Amino acid sequence: MSLTLQPLHPLFAAEASGIDLARPLSDADLKQINAAMNQYAVLVWRGQPLSGQQQIDLTKAFGPLDLGLKKVFKRKERLEDEHLIDISNVDAEGQVARRDSPKNLSNFANQLWHSDSSFQDPRAAYSMLHAVVLPSWGGTTEFADLRAAYDALPERTRGEIESLSAEHYALHTRILLGDEAYTDDQKKAIPPAVWPLVQTHPGSGRKLLFVGVHAREIIGWPTAEARIYLSDLLEHATQREFVYRHEWQVGDLVMWDNRSTLHRGRRYDIAERRELRRTTIEDVPEARLMAA
Asked: DSSP labels for 161-186?
């Protein structure tokens, strides 16, 4: 099969077709998809009604699966495999969750600009999100191109950040949203990860600005100054011209590269059922991410 791409944004993101994601991918398929991901960073696949196991098998073709916060917080799950991340407002009993539930806390945190698992080492590479049930309004997902954001930085700012690194902490978003009910043991179980603010994407060779809401400190800087500066950089990176907004259809599968994009969910009526399933791979040497 041959991959067909239709750009969705002037800078990045493309609709992909021509490959049936429910079937095992060949080496040629992997090379085509990786090359497209290196160029576009976000690929939208329409009409891919995958089962949970098919989505897991698809994701495994690119590398080892990432559990994210499930490595630390073990909670009752409703999906058949722990590698399926339940991006929904549905509780473990299959009912729409209470407004003040832990499930909805996670949903609110997902509405902040972030890259998956930037708070750990290894971080995440590709994520794949599959739409199963959608609400009547809202719930779109936005993506920001960190490569374009770097390209648009003033020269002075590029020079300032070239040698700086930021600390990313998993609970930073939860604490921002008022959830402070974590024990010292839980906090210690998720040590922060440190990443350079300026990185070169290994597949495309392009420089990028690696920021996001998980970043809470700049190494060697006073906390207040660092957080203001990180906020300014995040505001720059998520300007409208760098953002693709995805309007979901049931059966969509969207792939994105967490190393070169940020994303956030948008508001919807949390009294209406919304179910998406995410799978993610770790950015490790054995991941099959290169185009050639």
From this structure: HTT-EEEE-TTHHHHHTT-----HHH
Domains of the chain, by residue range, sit at 4-282
Residue 242 has what DSSP assignment?
G
Query: What are phi and psi for residue 47, nearest 5 degrees?
Result: 60, 50
Report the CATH fold assignment for 4-282.
Double-stranded beta-helix (3.60.130)
Global pTM value: 0.95
Would you write out the chain's pLDDT as a tens digit for each of its 292 residues? 699 999 999 999 999 999 999 999 999 999 999 999 999 999 999 999 999 999 999 999 999 999 877 666 666 777 878 889 999 999 988 999 999 888 888 889 999 999 999 999 999 999 999 999 999 999 999 999 999 999 999 999 999 999 999 999 988 888 888 877 777 887 787 899 999 999 999 999 999 999 999 999 999 999 999 999 999 999 999 999 999 999 999 999 999 999 999 999 999 999 999 999 999 999 998 899 977 5
